[in-house]
Write a structure and sequence with these properties.
The protein has about 350 residues and is an alpha/beta fold. It is built from 15 helices and seven strands. It has a seven-stranded mixed beta sheet, sandwiched between helices. The longest helix has 21 residues.
Amino acid sequence: MEMNPAPRPPLVDPLASEAASDYVRVCGEFTDRMFWPLKMFTALNLFLWHMDAFERDEDPVPLFVDVFTRATRFLRQATASGTGMASFPPPATAASGAEGFEQRIFGLFSDVWVGLTDDVYFDQSYEFTRQRLEKNEIAPGDLFGSKVVLDAGCGSGKFSCALARFGADRVIGVDLGQKGLSFARDQAARVSYGHRLDYLCGSLLDLPLPDASVDLVWSNGVVHHTLDYERCIGEFARVVKPAGTLFLYVNGRFGLFELLLDTLRTATADVPRELFQHFLILLGINSGRIYWIMDCLYAPYEWKGRAEVVAMLERNGFSEIRQLTRGVAIDQIEQVSAGLPHAEAKYGEAQLKFVATRT
């Protein structure tokens, strides 16, 4: 499988980009499936490395360059061993095009979502959402109370449940994956507010809802995984009522973290997602962490800057656009907003979260 160096985000140190490109190149030399375990081992360790290194109050660039250089050296030694180089040739290329893209996306997330434990699914999602909104001086009860809410890209329904708990009259969750939706319906049957939750199978590019049919659209970390950013925003504008509300969370330009994710995603592109996920399960990693790792390493991202997203919202009839810049302690946007040392180098614009009004 031919592999190309990960794209370089703007404002990333060239030494970091070079070290990342070298790592991708050596991974591209591993055309035999026997080396999949080494790719998983190094990718996971590089990902876990950033969690420790980015907590330090020191320049992350030299640390990034050093750890990627060492990982590349380790892999080159394995390549030079000459063992297993033609035992298990690469598998057939996966389905391409829009249909193949969507199958990979909902296949990835559906398998991860159904492994979520109750504390992550019900309690953590609710508490983190409450804290994030309240830190931005938004009362969840005022935002969702007595509203018909679309959870656009609801996945397993964990945020749909949170929105219903905050007082929404009805929450309509829409997603592509039947497996995740089935899990969401089972979860809804377990809670007292489950009768206010409905789930529909459909694409954000063509929402299965009438025009002006909801009071609020909630889209939490989904649009950057789709094939058409602008079309999604256009669909949100179509289904929300005039003077209705959009909550949109997408990833901005993420600096060194963006380079890390793009590099690891490119380097492990030929390793089956199911194999990597099972590897994480066997290591005993908790369900919330597995969800995050699989999202970062296997879900495609389209990184857009703040100005691009705001302009897109305006083009599609949204006004009174307010960016939410606070979060819980683990949120990258909270670290950037708090001015922690080197936070912008690590995370750039970080998460872009907006509340906007349909004109």
